[in-house]
Every structure is written in structure tokens, then in C-alpha cells.
Amino acid sequence: MRLLVLLWGCLVLPGYEALDGPEEISGFEGDTVSLKFTYKEELRDYRKYWCRNVGLFFSRCAGTIYSGEEGQETTEGRVSIRDSRQELSFTVTLRNLTLKDAGKYWCGVKGVNKHLLITLVIFPGSSRPIMHLDSTSAEDASPALSNGSSKPRLSIPLVRILAPVLVLLSLLGAAGLITFSSHLLRWRKEAQLATETQRNEVYLSHLNHRTSELGPEEAFEISSPTFLSV
């Protein structure tokens, strides 16, 4: 009975307890990703492979790449594979990922029924999160990510967002300055008009007071204009 259970497990779950690795991996366009698989001692001398699953109803491989000698990396196009037999593991590296690379892949051991199905998910490069380096992270960053400066960087998308805001603030400032200048000019005109009105009232009050002190004939001469005859 136990023998039947083990035989059923080997048929239904090929590679069970003999080959182990990730079932899914993801990356962005242009990235390089590596997958590490481990295997049992009995699979040390067998060649390992990586291929793409192109079967619709029946699984079959396309673009198969096989491992070489101990520690030797085999490369075909943007894919490479290296078997480290002393560590009982092999590594598959995918370089310069594209959206077309997304799909199902097989990795396994040639000559025995040991293989795994892996799903590769690719995200567009435009959806990559923006990393901001501050004074703390810049010290811990590798030389490839840091140029030795602890000053924070301003990302280009942030500049694009702030540009319309700065333009809008400039327009609002200009409109406010124009409105203030218009109110200031109006206030000066009203002040001048009030001053002239006050002067006229003072003059008329003085004239009325002087007229009341004089007789009718003198008052008429003061209030009436004098015409010179030639």
C-alpha cells in the first residue's frame, strides 16, 4: 500500500522531493532575474534544462537550453543556465526581460521524469516604482546606485507635477497684483476727489460768511464776476 502511494506521488507530482524551486517569478521590462533550483544527490550527474511551454493541450518545450559541465554557464540569447553540482543546485538567468517573455516555463532534469512548471510575470517598465534616495539610504547604497552625494534627488515625474502648480501660482500672483493696483488707483482718485470737495466746501463757507457781513450791494459785487470794458 505504501509503495502504491509513493508511486502515485511520483506520477502526479513529478519532481516531488527530488527537484525544488520557485513556482512563480516576476520582474519589470529590462530587468534581469535569476531562479535557483535545488535537487537531490541522485540527480547530480544528469543535465538540467530550461524551456518554454508552448503546448496548448499537450505540453511541449521550445527554445530548450541545457546545462554544461560543472560550474560552466551555458548561454543562448538572453537565457543562461549553470549547474553547481557540488552545491546540488542550478541557476537560470533571464536578461533584458520583455513583455513577450511572460508565460509558462519548464525546468527539469534530462533523462528522468523530474521537472517543475514556472510562471513568469512581466510588468511594464512605466509601472516601476520611483526610488528616492535620502541622506540615510545614500550612505548604504551600492556604488552603482550612489555617486557619493548625500543630497536627495528630485525625480522627473515630480518636476512635471510641480510645473503646472508653479505656473498656476504665478498667474494667481499676477492677477492679485493687478487687482491690488486697480484698488490702489481707485482709492487715490477717491481721495483726490474728497480733498477737492472739502476745499470747495471750505471756500463756499468762507464766501458765505464774508457775504453775510457785507451789505447787499457789496455782496453782489463780490459774488458777481467783474467784466472789464475795453
TrEMBL record:
One of its GO terms (cellular component) is plasma membrane. The chain crosses the membrane at residues 161-180. It is found in: Membrane. The keyword Cell inner membrane does not apply. Residues 1-18 form the signal peptide. PROSITE patterns: IG_LIKE. The keyword Transmembrane applies. InterPro entries: CD300_family_receptors, Ig-like_dom, Ig-like_dom_sf, Ig-like_fold, Ig_sub, Ig_V-set. SMART domains: IG. GO terms for molecular function: transmembrane signaling receptor activity. Keywords: Disulfide bond, Membrane, Signal, Transmembrane, Transmembrane helix. Residues 14-119 form the Ig-like domain. PANTHER family: CMRF35-LIKE MOLECULE 9 (PTHR11860:SF62), POLYMERIC-IMMUNOGLOBULIN RECEPTOR (PTHR11860). This is CD300 molecule like family member g. The gene is CD300LG.
